[in-house]
Design brief:
CATH topology of chain B: MetI-like fold
Shape of chain A: globular
Distance between the termini of chain A: 66 Å
Radius of gyration of chain B: 27 Å
Strand content of chain A: 5-15%
Largest interface: A-B, 47 and 40 residues
CATH architecture of the largest domain in chain A: 3-Layer(aba) Sandwich
CATH class of chain B: Mainly Alpha
Number of strands of chain A: 11
Number of domains of chain B: 1
Number of helices of chain A: 18
Distance between the termini of chain B: 50 Å
Strand content of chain B: under 5%
Largest sheet of chain B: none
CATH architecture of chain B: Orthogonal Bundle
Oligomer: heterodimer
CATH topology of the largest domain in chain A: D-Maltodextrin-Binding Protein, domain 2
CATH superfamily of the largest domain in chain A: Periplasmic binding protein-like II
Shape of chain B: globular
Largest sheet of chain A: 5 strands, mixed
Strand order of the largest sheet of chain A: 2-1-3-10-4
Structural class of chain A: alpha/beta
């Protein structure tokens, strides 16, 4: 009995000691080095319909890279819900991947942490120069006046996806080009359990993307020129109200969408429950849900009046994915080589084709594959009428604070409570007070 | 053998009456009793390290201005003295106000959840005392919510609470017609009810299990004697069952209180990273204050405040239970 107890205590001690040393393992290097030139760890964001899809797309390319350079890339596809947390943890602990994908709206926030390798002229030189990239894509790689924290990898823009048959059945000959037309068409479409438009009311980021564009169309901005939060101007309040009113007043969005946050609106659209959807690069996703490509059309996102352009005619954010190098990498040269590989013309064509995104590399964009009618709309929007979200260090806090406020407003609208200018203003005021004092 | 006996004899004579063992046997006993503790010591030290070090780091963080500009190099983060705490408890300003609101929601939620868990668990345990056919099956069935992995259980509830296709609305609205129109359960004010439902559903089997174990220790004779004296079922429960369960209940309520108050999984899986205001529990609120807004200093300060509150409440519960036990 005694010996058993002693043995058990010894075993516990030993295992704890082992666990403790295991936790302490790994090397935390302060800056970049080239200690392990033969391996790289790459965190890819989830671009395909599922993580397995991404692995299937990326692995052959990584194998190609290994054949060319002898560097083995360990791939991990990180779901969007975890990606930012994972990056923050990696930043805090100094132990992360060598190369990683980031949402381009996070660029300035992550740049402020100093965790990412700055792309100065020297570093850009190693991957063929800054001029290879489209300007609008470079516009969301970090704060203005600073060396970019990442390079553009995939570009996307919002577009209006519409179900051809449903629009034709309702006697609508062409997709709406202005919001007034959308509401008028929407009233015809929203009946018998079907609805005109789908959206994700409980997803703060989606809310921000739309609110930002609406604000632009009202000539307003959520940040002042010197980067201070300014959520409660007449323009932003009107913008948010117009967005929420699509459900509250115009009733062209099903109330149930207020609790959507997991791309349910894409499924609804694929199943023909909603006739229109504002989405970025939805083609691959729709295909995986069994919607054939000729069943839907793609049109530019509506504007207040006239045609999409700059200034008040903006109709999309510059959406996209950037590729960044973690400053703590112990294979800086290899990481740079990998970025060069991923942004090369050949890889850009393959990858952007697979994800139905637009290459941010000029020479790849010119390829015929990106001149299809669907891609033309996205490409046109990116080139002419898309604006980058504010590149300020507080961008992620803005997404959370304002995105959550709009989620609350949609909850009100869904429950049938009135959404007024005053209630929108109050919600935005509260969001602004949550922002860190600049 | 003889030498031991000889050596022991004088010792026995010297020792005061009543002491049974000699000094040599006593040191032997100390050795024997001490050995396991000695062997456990390294484990204990590591345990302290594993538990205490993160707590100390958290407390240190709460005095720093640890925002996104400094997370890469904590050492460089400036000391902010009590600023994080001032922001957290300034109830006139939005951050403090939101924290207070979240705290009150959590207190209300915890009281209701613990109360209901205890009530349902105790009632079920008392009913299950009598033997009947299928009792074992029912007992096993009752424990299922407790045995299920949290994520799997709560995500099922998320599907059931959905507005358009959820089972709850289907039953309440479509079949029973209790509501005028389908209700929202995962956003807006109803989210509190949804959260409470899931929490009680998940928590009561534990109360049931503990109370059932406690009931086994109450001697049957007490009930027989009470029945002879003419006490009814209700009186037996009030005068025998509940008083006998008191020590069990005290531990049970303390544990349930701590679990429920700190519960992160349930609201996080139900509502995601931004909980609706009506169900904004403090654990998720702190998570949002630190991870989502990247202000780890303020988040830590809020955590320390929460820790203090729980220490005070937990200490109070433990102390009062001990006082009462010695009094009774």
């Amino acid at each position: 009995m005694r010996s058993i107890r002693a043995a058990a205590a010894g075993a516990v001690t030993l295992s704890l000691a082992l666990a403790a040393t295991a936790c302490g393992g790994g090397s935390a290097t302060g800056g970049g080095s080239n200690d392990s030139p033969k391996t790289l760890t790459y965190w890819a964001s989830n671009q395909g319909a599922g993580i397995e899809v991404d692995k299937k797309v990326l692995q052959p390319e990584l194998d190609k890279f290994e054949k060319q350079t002898g560097i083995k890339v360990k791939l991990e596809v990180v779901p969007w819900s975890d990606l930012l947390n994972r990056i923050l943890t990696a930043t805090t602990s100094g132990q992360g991947p060598d190369v990683l994908n980031i949402g381009n709206t996070w660029s300035a926030s992550l740049q402020a942490t100093g965790a990412l390798l700055p792309w100065d002229t020297g570093n850009f030189g190693k991957i063929g120069g800054r001029d290879r990239f489209v300007d609008s894509a470079l516009g969301s790689t970090g704060a203005e006046g600073k060396d970019p924290a990442a390079v553009p990898l995939y570009s996307m823009s919002y577009a209006l996806y519409y179900n051809k048959k449903m629009l034709a059945d309702a006697g609508i000959s062409k997709p709406p080009a202005t919001w007034d037309e959308l509401v008028a068409d929407g009233r015809k479409l929203s009946k018998d359990g079907k609805w005109a438009l789908g959206m994700e009311g409980s997803n703060p980021s989606e809310n921000i993307h739309h609110a930002f564009v609406f604000a632009k169309q009202h000539g307003a901005d959520f940040f002042t020129a010197d980067g201070k939060a300014d959520f409660t101007s007449d323009g932003t309040v009107a913008a948010v109200k117009q967005y929420v009113d699509l459900m509250a007043k115009d009733k062209v969005i099903a109330p149930g969408n207020a609790e959507y946050a997991q791309n349910q609106s894409v499924s609804d659209f694929a199943k023909g429950k909603t006739a229109m959807l504002l989405w970025q690069s939805a083609s691959a996703n729709l295909a995986s849900q069994g919607m054939s490509e000729d069943a839907y059309g793609i049109a530019p996102v509506p504007v207040q009046s006239g045609t999409p352009g700059t200034g008040k005619q903006v109709n999309s954010m510059v959406a996209g994915i950037n590729l960044a190098v973690f400053k703590n990498t112990d294979n800086t040269d290899g990481a740079t080589k990998f970025v060069k590989f991923m942004t090369s013309d050949a890889e850009q064509k393959i990858l952007n084709n697979a994800y139905s995104t637009i290459p941010p590399v000029k020479s790849a964009q010119a390829d015929a594959a990106f001149a299809t009618p669907a891609n033309a709309v996205l490409k046109d929007t990116l080139a002419k009428s898309a604006v980058a979200l504010p590149q300020v260090a507080d961008e992620s806090q803005f997404e959370t604070a304002v995105g959550t406020a709009i989620k609350g407003l949609f909850a009100d609208a869904a429950a049938g409570r009135p959404v007024t200018t005053a209630s929108v203003k109050a919600a935005l005021e509260k969001a602004q007070q949550q922002m860190p004092a600049a | 053998m003889t030498t031991t006996a000889q050596a022991e004899r004088p010792a026995v004579r010297k020792s005061p009456p009543g002491a049974a063992h000699g000094p040599r046997r006593r040191t032997g006993r100390i050795h024997r009793v001490g050995l396991p503790y000695l062997l456990l010591l390294p484990a204990l030290l590591l345990e302290l390290l594993v538990h205490l070090v993160p707590m100390v780091i958290g407390i240190v963080m709460s005095f720093k201005e640890l925002t996104q500009f400094y997370i890469r190099d904590w050492g460089a983060a400036p000391w902010s003295a009590l600023d994080n705490y001032k922001v957290s408890v300034d109830f006139d300003a939005p951050v403090g106000e939101a924290l207070l609101h979240s705290f009150l929601v959590t207190v209300a939620f915890t009281l209701l959840s613990v109360g209901l868990c205890w009530l349902i668990g105790t009632a079920a345990a008392v009913f299950m005392q009598d033997t009947f056919r299928g009792r074992g099956l029912l007992r096993a069935l009752f424990l299922v919510p407790y045995a299920l992995p949290v994520y799997a259980a709560v995500i099922t509830w998320v599907f059931m609470f959905q507005h358009d296709n959820g089972l709850v609305n289907h039953v309440l609205h479509d079949q029973l017609g209790l509501t005028d129109k389908p209700s929202f359960w995962l956003i807006g004010d109803n989210s509190f009810i949804a959260l409470l439902t899931v929490s009680v559903w998940k928590g009561w089997p534990f109360a049931f299990l503990i109370v059932m174990a406690g009931l086994q220790n109450i001697p049957r004779e007490l009930y027989e004697a009470a029945a002879l004296d003419g006490a009814g079922v209700w009186q037996q429960i009030r005068r025998i069952t509940l008083p006998s369960l008191r020590p069990v209940n005290q531990v049970l309520v303390l544990v349930l209180f701590l679990w429920t108050f700190n519960d992160f999984n349930t609201p996080f899986v139900l509502f995601g990273r931004t909980a609706p205001e009506a169900a904004d529990l403090i654990s998720v609120h702190i998570y949002q204050a630190s991870f989502v807004t990247w202000n780890f200093g303020t988040g830590s300060a809020m955590s320390v405040l929460l820790l203090l509150f729980l220490l005070v409440t937990g200490g109070y519960l433990v102390l009062t239970s001990r006082g009462r036990r010695s009094a009774s």
